Amino acid sequence: MIATILFFVAGLILLIGGAELLVRGASELAGRLGMTPLVIGLTVVAFGTSAPELAISLQSGIAGEDALLLGNVIGSNIFNVLFILGISAILIPLVVSKNLIKLDVPLMIGASIMLYFFAWDGVISRIEGGILFVSLLSYIGYLVYDARKQYHTKSKEKNAQAEASSRYWVWDIVFVLFGFILLVVGARWLVNGAVTFAEYLGVSSLVVGLTIVAAGTSLPEIATSVLASIKGERDLAVGNIVGSNLFNIMCIVGLTAIVLPDGITVQPGVVGFDIPVMIAASIVCLPIFITGKLISRWEGIFFLGYYIAFTAYLILTATEHHLLSYFNAAMGWFVLPMTLMTGLFMLVREWKNGTKKI
Fold first, then answer.
1. Which residue ranges form the domains of the chain, and what is each CATH number?
2. What is the pLDDT of residue 312?
3. In Å, how far are 75, 84, 86, 105 from 339, measured between CA atoms?
């Protein structure tokens, strides 16, 4: 047990150091390549910080732990939106890019819904995994094409300045790659320690995947987004989360379904509860992002509160606690209706403000 605790602490240290290197390298690389921090956050940083999820999901699928695999992906996406964006916004309100609202968040919602329909029959087949993975490649291709197109429209002075600083690119790439390595190793040590604790407590693999493993593999996103928001790289902080969620669904689920001979087996509870919660967490982003194009501190508290409620539900369900019925009643009759009314009010207010400006 002492060794487990030591690995856990060492993993946390590696995560913090890796996040520092990753944010520094990615931010500098964005400027030198003519790409915005948002594009870097949606691609390089997001996919790099999701590497632990990919490694663990592939290992889980090969070992026949499909519940752990899906629990990791779904739990990570819920954790990314509700917990990480919540914490980041509480620290510093996050400005949301227009491109993120128009393209990336709707795509995240669409990918979540697509996963729901693919999982409906109890199996995510190889063909369905291929569709998810090809969709990801198309998305990356569009982002890179659009970023390069904008880059070539810049002034000659800026291009010349970028060429003059090209000798420093190698250090930016070294920072990014070394940051990735530290993040992956650190997350792996943390997850191993967390899983050991979970097994000691006798929790099911699906619950472990939705909570401990999901939180553990999302620690790179926590470190990267929080550090990016503190450093003022707010596009990078938000883009990292949205890009990571897209990567989790399209690449991790898609690639794992392709690799496994029989695809991914889906438990009824995943389709009945867990994926719908992930979809709801994605949809709730849209009205919040649209209204004022800012994630304020109170909205961050709102996100964080919902994650606490989700985790409480999983714990109460796993332990078959007598308070579960009261919790369900409170969520169904008060919290969810109030959330829906607040979201509609925000959208109507934003629409009226937009109409007045016209």
1. 2-303 (1.20.1420.30)
2. 83
3. 21, 19, 16, 19
